Structure formats: structure tokens, C-alpha cells
Amino acid sequence: MQYVTSTEQLAELVRSQARVRVAGGGTKSATSRLANVSLSRLSGVLQYDPEEYTFTALAGTRLEEIDRLLRSKSQYLPFDPPLIEAGATLGGTVAAGLSGSGRLRYGGVRDFLLGARLVTGLGETVTTGSKVVKNAAGLDFPKLMVGSLGKFGVMTELTFKVFPAPQSCATIVLDTEHLAQAVEIMKSLAISQLDLACLDMDSSRRIWARVAGIREAVELRAQRVLQLAGGRGTILTDQQDADTWQACREFRWVPDEHSLIKVVITPDRIAPLIAALENLPYRISVGGHLAWLAWPRLRSSQELDQILHKLGCPAVALMGEWPSPWIGDHQENVFEQRLVMALDPNNKFSLSQPAGA
Amino acid sequence: MDANRLEEFRTQLSRLFPAGRLLTSATQVASYESDGLTAFRDRPDAVVLVESADEVVDTVRLCHQYGVPFVARGSGTSLSGGSLPIPGGVVIALNRLNRLLDYHPSHGTIVVEPGFVNQHVSKHAAQDRLYYAPDPSSGPVCTIGGNVAFNSGGAHCLKYGMTANHVLGMKVVLPDGEVVHLGGQSLEMAGPDLTGMFVGSEGLFGIALEVTLRLLPQPERYHTVLAAYDTLPKAGDAVAMVVASGLLPGAMEIMDNLAIEASEAAVHAGYPLEAAGVLLVELEGPEEEVAAEIPLLEKVIGESNAYEVRVAQNETERMTIWKGRKCAFSAVGRLSPDYIVQDGVVPRTRLREALDEIQRLSRKFDLRVANVFHAGDGNLHPLILYDGRIQGQLEQAEQLAGEILKMCIRFGGSITGEHGIGVEKIDFLPQMYGELEMQLMKRVRLSVDPSQLANRGKMLEVSAGKTDHKHTPHPLEQAGIISRA
Ligand SMILES: Cc1cc2nc3c(=O)[nH]c(=O)nc-3n(C[C@H](O)[C@H](O)[C@H](O)COP(=O)(O)OP(=O)(O)OC[C@H]3O[C@@H](n4cnc5c(N)ncnc54)[C@H](O)[C@@H]3O)c2cc1C
Predict the structure, then answer these.
(1) Do A214 and B292 lie within an 8 Å CB cutoff?
(2) A158 with A25, same domain?
(3) What is the ipTM of this complex?
């Protein structure tokens, strides 16, 4: 593993090596398994303008540092990036395209990334997007980086939009009797005017709905969520509320010896997916648009690949060993291929195992 | 292309379309020669009025086979010349490709064809108290396809983002006729965000045939405030104060005195005519949340030295306030025979400086400039008033407009927040980005479309020699149907 500390050094590496696969914090091992370059020392916040709602940081900066900094000014990243305590970095979060439960309200990582400095497969350093909150000039390379697992370029510097943090939050926990009921409640809450910050369901069909805002309003709104859902449930506030979502963000529910998989779904796929999984631990998130699965490491990766394929769900494996982290209904199309040809014509960033390795 | 081959191409095209939907004579194509950037005109070889996605694909394949450039066209409201025809090329008019394909209220998604009109999305979803957030002022007529190509914005971008943030998936035909699916039906995705890369590409990557949009629950309550100031910087400072308070309003808009004067003359929304600037702030959300935010906003506005504050008491009053804002641009037509609408972004904290600079330029060029802007995200829309009948004034106005863009670049902002590059700002893009960035964009363009058939001459190429041109209101503005912002 080679550690780089500057963009120039990275660009030089890209120019001189045949293959460059990057790791950030290493928290998503399935995506960085073949890494030969680490960005963990390319770290630090370069600029933070609370009044502009923006900050720029090096790609290897840990989310923990960002979180702390933003909190000090009562701001936050509304897409709720996961694995903060585990040591995830900004770059890794963008590359893996990961947003947490809070992305329900204002959008995901794609919606808050404004600019990216990156090194292309030809070793050029380009500064794409912008540092202001609104920009429609030129091609949107920052978005292309989201979820790309580094196949188009290596990000070295990122600019994000941030928002004022809500003063207070509360979580309504609802027990349901059967899956169909749980899905119905989820669907109706998701499109209600209650303005939920998070809407998740765990493996025991318990629904977790979170409201955020001004303290006195949050209390009243939590009561309304409870009523709308039939009145049976509990409300968590303050530390209890915070702890709940922190545990969720760090995936503490994933048992040992299990790999974490992100599966893209729509609410009508919840039931078929759960049926196909037969008692494996999962968490449905973002009002039924995202599922996190825990897959036993000893079980065949192909099996899951097939299940997801059959269901028509694209997915990305985050931990464990997989032939390719992209599983399920994932196909590279010609648009993608042509973009690779322009950004990385020599396939230096390819995710496939190099021949003979 | 030699004459025989051109004839062959035309014959093939006429096999794809009945005579009524293939326009070739000068009179037939006249209304397609220009878009919202009325100063530019070009004559296409043909215009096809497509009615199905297959017809689009067939046309694109034919164009590819014969090397004929093509441009997609929605409602032709682009303000940067995005839908300007390519001389000798084909215009693929998508207005009739406007079906609703799928509607999933419980998923918060809708799938439409590209000719679907922006505001019709929210109209359709209103039955389930849902709406489509991006709200360009041209919403009553502009199409989702045009919005996708230009990543269009509106008054609510700070909180909700632009078009790109609300497009989940697409079916598109690439410039060589290949059809691909990008993204999907979910809010989430696995794999690179190709949808995000396509949005805002100004038609260079081909034509969107189906678009999946995210719908949001309608806010339960709005609270709309109009605050009047005796100096424009005070209005700007008020924005900073709102931001510092931790509130996140749905919209924050500013208009200066000249813009107010124009707007009042046109729609009588009751804005204070003597104000140097007005700030429009709108809170929105659940009943209880808005109720709790109102005292905070009142306090901030109270401390901001507004000399008059009005609060919309009901939906009618709210709509009147918005009408005053949304029509401001076309209303400027009442103050001046001609005007240029500029669109640029500066960091919000430099708004005050930017306004000073615009005023300085206005004096220097001796041309009046009215200012209307999305203050929350630093998106300026200076309107440069001139009289095209006076020798040299158009050039002066264009020069002033260019100076404003250069200022945006200097301040670390952007040369467009929502109207795109098109042909209008093609010379400025290389000033905002460096040489390597420009090379990369061109490489991507050539990799996707080696012959540059899709919307050739927009965003990236060197602009063709500018011909005689004049900035006048869009025909639909003259008819009072839409106004710009
Ligand atoms: C009065 C007025 C007010 C305006 N206000 C705003 C505003 O508030 N905010 C804002 O952002 N913009 C605004 N605009 C600009 C304009 O309305 C937007 O750019 C709009 O998205 C254009 O839509 P259209 O259907 O008219 O597209 P057109 O002008 O027909 O086309 C625009 C571009 O999109 C391409 N295109 C069209 N359909 C497709 C497709 N299916 N696939 C690929 N490319 C396609 C065209 O080739 C062209 O390059 C305003 C314009 C006017 C005239």
C-alpha cells in the first residue's frame, strides 16, 4: 500500500503505474479489497464557510472530523453519511455512493456534492463542478463520481453543501403485526405531509420514524405521527433518539461474520425481498427505497447475486469478499463505457482483478 | 454532404413521417428558427414533430447514418440558445411526446415523456398532495426534457436543489441511436450516477425519451413575508441574518427598485414602489413547524431595519406576492424596448459587493440594470435595459453582460445558475474552467458522440460568427403566458 499526501503525488502515481485502486478509511472492505493506494493521509479541511453553507476538504478526511466541525457551527450534512465512528472518509462515502437514513428528507450524497477535484486515468488533475451552492455550467463530473467506486477518476478534494442542523429530533417507534401492515404504514408515512427526516423498518418489522425541527414543534409533530400510525408506539427523545440513529448509522445491528450489502429497492419490492431472504437480518430505509442486508460470510456470494437479479434490484456489496462489489441487477451500458474511454482509456482504475493476481 | 446523399436522407426521413409532421419549407420551419434567446436565429433543414419514442430513435439513427446534426426541442424557451437549430440539421420537436407513463404516489415517483410540461407534473400529483419541486418561471410551458437538458432551477433551489436532484432515472437514445437506461425508479442507486451526468448536458449526450421524477409531499403550510428596505444592501444583509438564524426558508428572493417598478406597472401586486429593495421570504412545512419558525423570522426581519413588512394572510395574497416576483422579468419590457437577461452566481456572502459592482458597471456603460435574484443561493439575474434602435447600444449591453459574468468568475461563483451555456456563454465556459477541464469535457463529448451530431455547437464548441441579433421577449412572454426569472 502506498500512502499519498498530495494531489500531485497521486497524479504522478497514476501516470507511472498500470493500476490504481484506492482505499480511504477501509471501512467498506469489499470496495477497497484490491487497493494499492491509500488516501487516508490526504486529509484535512481546506475551507469552511458556515454562512455560505459550504465546505471543501481533502478526500481522505474522516467524516468524524467533518461532523465535529459542522456541529460546532450547528450545521450538518443532511444526507446523513454512515460509518462515521468506524472511520469512513469523505471520498470513500462519495465513491461508494452511501447516504444514511436521513437522506429521505433533503436528498442523498449526490444532492449535496457541489465540486470535486480529481485525477483522471491519464494523470490529469481537473477541478470540476463549483464551490457555490448553485451551478449549471458544464458537465456534472461530481455527480458521476457518486457510486462510481473510483472507476472514472480518483477524487482528491470535495466541496459539499451543508444545512443548518435541526434544533431537536424525536423518533416514533411503531410495532406492527405483519409485514403487509408494516409496508402500508411505511408507504403512507413516506408521502404524508409530516415531513419526516428518517423512515426505517428493522428485521422485526418495527418502524422508526424521525421528525426534526424546533423543539416545541417536534413534540407535537411526533404525537401526530403516532396518531396517524394508529396510536400504538413509543416516542424517543434527546439522547435516546440520538443513540438510536447512531447505532443505525454504524450498522451495529449487523452480526459478526456477516457482510453488509446495500440494495436499491422501491417500496413494492420490500415484501418480495424479505420473503427471498428467509430470516436474514436487514434494515429497510429511506421510506422503502433502500435496503441494507447482512449476508453470512460463509454463504455463497453467487446465491445473493442471483436472488437480487431475480428481483431486479441493483446492489453493492460493502464488506466481505466478492468477485465484483456490484451485484444483482447491474449492467455496464455503452454510455458508461464511453465515459470510461474518455476518463480512463487505459483502464487503470478498473475494478476487475488484474490478470494473474 | 453531397446533393444526392442529402436527397436520399430527405427521402428516408419522409418515409418515417407523414407530410403533416415533417416540416421543410421556409414558412413551416420559421417558428423553430429561434428559442428564448431571440437574438439568435438559424434555419434547420427539417423539423419533425415526433409522437413516439420510436420515432425519435429512428430519426436519430437516420441522422447518424447520414451524418446529419440534430437538436431536440421542447418548448423552445431556453434563454441561452440551447434549442437553436443547427443550420442544415434536423429539429426533433418533442412537444407531442408528452404522455404520462406511470404514476406511483406511494413511491413518490412519476414517469413522463420528455414533452410533458413542467407544471403539469405538480398538477397531476396534487390529487395525492404531492408536487414536483423544481419550479422555473417558465413552468407553465417548458418541458421536462428541456429541464433535464438544462438542469433547470427556480425559486426553491437552496432547500430543494435543481432538476438533477429530482430526476431518478431515464431512458435515453444516445447520439448514434443506441438506447440505454440510466438510474431507475428508486431514490437510491448502485453504481455510478449516470443520470446525474446526463442531466445538464445540454442535449450533447442524446435525447431523453422517458424520465422518472421524484415527487415530494406538498408543504402543509406556507408563511410568506415581504419586507421593504430603503437601501438594497439592507435587503442583502437581511438574507445573511436569516441564514445566520438557522432557519432554512423554502425561498428567499430580492428585487431592486427598478424591478419593482416594472413589476408593479405590469401586475399591480402591491409592492412598495418607493422601496430600494424588497426581500421575499417563504417558510414552509408542517403546521406546527412553521408556527414555531414564524416568531424567529419576525425577530430577524424586525432587526433587519425593514421599514415595512407584509405577511400574506391567505393563499390569494401569497399568490399575488409571487406573481409580482415571477413576472418581474418580462415586465421590464415595459421600461425598455430591449433587454438582456443575465444569469450568474456569486457566493452568497459577496452579494452586496456584487450588487455594488453591477451598479458601477451600469453607470460606466450608461445603461440601466434591474436586479432580481434568488438571494438564498446567490443566483443573480441582472436585466440590462437597452434600445436596439440606438446604434451600438446592443453591443454595449452585451459587453456589460459579459463584465457581470467575469465578476461572477472572479468572485469564485458560476457563469450560470440555471439558464445554461448554450451558444450564449460558449466563450465564457473556458474562463470559468481551466484548459484541462475543457479538454476533458470535449473528450467526453467526442467519446459519446464522435461526429458531434447531438446539439452541435452548444456548450463546448467555438461560437460561430455572431450574426445580427436583438434581445426581445419570448413570444410567449409577449402573449403574457410566461415570464422569466
Ligand atoms: C420567460 C422565461 C422564464 C424562464 N425562467 C426560468 C427559470 O426560472 N429557471 C430556469 O432554470 N430556467 C428558466 N427559463 C429557461 C428555460 O425555460 C429552461 O431552460 C427550460 O428548461 C427549457 O425548456 P424547454 O422545454 O423550453 O426546452 P427547449 O428550449 O426546447 O430546449 C432546451 C434544451 O434542451 C434540449 N432538450 C429538449 N428536450 C430534450 C430531451 N428530451 N432530451 C435531451 N435534450 C433535450 C434542447 O436541445 C435544448 O438544448 C426561462 C425561460 C423563459 C423564456
Answers:
(1) yes
(2) yes
(3) 0.97
